[in-house]
Amino acid sequence: MTAELEVGPVQQLEDHLKQYEEVYSYSELDTFQRCRRKWYYGYGLRLGEAAPAVAADAGTVMHAAIAKLWKTNDVDQSVAALNEVYDKLFAWVEPAGFDLAKQYKRDHLLKVFLRYGLDVFRNDKLPPISPAFVEIGFIVEMDDPRGKEPPAMLYGRMDWVGKSEIDGHVAPVDTKTTKSWGADFTARYDPDIQGDLYTYVTKRLLPNENIRGFYINGILLQVTKIEFNRILIPRKQLDIDEFEAETFWWITQLRQTRADKFYPKSTNQCTAYGECPFRKICTGHMNPNTINLFPHRGPKGFHFTSGD
Question: What average pLDDT does range 279-301 have in this prediction?
Answer without folding.
Answer: 49
